[in-house]
Amino acid sequence: MEEIRWGIIGCGDVTEVKSGPAFNKVAGSKLVAVMRRDAAKAADYAKRHGVAKWFDDASQLINDPEVNAIYIATPPLQHEAYTIEALKAGKPVYVEKPMTLDAASAERMTEAANQLNVKLCVAHYRRAQPMFLKIKELLAKNTIGDIRLVRLKMLQPPNPVLIAKTDDNWRINPAISGGGLFHDLAPHQLDLMTYYFGPVKNASGIATKQQENTEIDDLVAGNILFENGVVFSGTWCFSVAPGDQADSCIIYGSKGSITFPMFGNKIKVTTDETKEFVFEPLQHVQQPMIEKVVDYFLDKGPNPCSGEDALITMKLMDDFTEK
Hints:
Layout lengths: L3 E6 L19 E7 L3 H11 L3 E3 L2 H5 L6 E4 L6 H10 L4 E3 L7 H14 L3 E3 L7 H11 L6 E9 L18 H4 L3 H17 L2 E9 L10 E8 L4 E7 L8 E8 L3 E4 L5 E5 L3 E5 L8 H11 L9 H15 L2
Parallel strand pairs: 1-2, 1-4, 2-3, 4-5, 5-6, 7-10
Antiparallel strand pairs: 7-11, 8-9, 9-10, 11-12, 12-13, 13-14
Helix pairs in contact: 3-4, 4-9, 7-9
């Protein structure tokens, strides 16, 4: 390949700003086709974004000879089937997070990519953003000493603003999303923990429904012991009062701490003194990751997040929710 010519399956809200426009802003990359089951919406997206082709059938897009790579941005229920179909067509895949519904499905996707020898990347895009790379750098430099523990708190009221709004609110249907708002937000956070701290020794958690008339767990608590001895503890609750919402992660070391939000732009480092690092918001939050994916597909760089990487996150979510 000399140029990655993308086709998007599922050109919904998440692709409007976060990812879609970035495919035409990255060197060696071009968005050539989009697909959505609603033909009118697919045509509208193509017209507004200047995309030459649109489809209402995923198989037609996958088999279009002008498309040589696939970005899957549907709800998780469709991720496995579309990924494997694209891999069988010999086309590398960039699939949204969560990778799929559960770890068993993620294993099948990863095995398919390995058996077919076709590239697969997962959109844990915080790995490529400057703010989270800065945290990785601070940890590598031993800025806060030996890492002891991590405390993560994600507390949100019902219908939080962090969650993208859709017509059918599929995120709270576990058959489609895999497990509600926890499954939508936690992949970002858990992937970063494994990116920072490496292999997991063991993990466990609890999940419960505290609101009435809900199909999903709205409170999840999980613990991880990493092989290097770091201990992680996280709490996700989606039923607190608006005034109690919180988005905080604190990494404690022997010499100090690093505090940061998952949805924000400022890092605070506390040792003998306090330093802050503030980052400019990204216009397209996935663009740095897409750059790395394009390089990988063009054999110019490593895989920025493999199926094996994302499978670890899926297993952690299954452990926390006792699937």
